[in-house]
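S1.2 Input.
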Amino acid sequence: MNILIHRLSAFAALAMLALPAAANDYVIDDSHTYAHFTVDHLGFSTQRGFFRETSGSIRFDPEARNGEVDVRIAAGSLETGNRRRDDALRGATWFNVDAFPDILLRHGKLIFDGERPVAVEGTLVMLGEARPVRLEITRFKCGLNLAIGKQGCGADAHGRIRRSEFGMNSAIPFVGDEVRLDIQVEAYRP
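S1.3 Output.
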């Protein structure tokens, strides 16, 4: 009887190896994920800021070469290094965080070149407006994070948006309309 169970177990293990890998779900690690932005200020300088709070999920299937990304950015977690500017940017004429607490990247489809994801195409939702967005992936890696003993994926992605397309028209043209958005993300299997 033990030999039969052993052979069935070995057969089941071999059968599982022959099956294509299924899509894996990952949860975004908010301690290693940040959304940054840069914008021109009066032609004199480039101003930068970031959002401290992010959450979301990634579904990644390397065999089928597809995946999906959903990211939630807490607009009120914005920081630029200047408290007065941060308070103004959180206000009604800029990010209006009381009425629109979240910035969302929804249904972000991974775009592949061969075996490697090279972009995310999805919908950016900000200030109640939804617009298509494409973020180019400049770094991507999946594997075992030896420090925490979990399987994960990480990426750096960037793109450009026009804030006026979302109704954020304050101080244009003195503060640039074009904004560079950078997202560095790490996500791990639950």
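S1.4 Remarks. Residues 21-188 form a domain with the Lipocalin fold (CATH 2.40.128.110).
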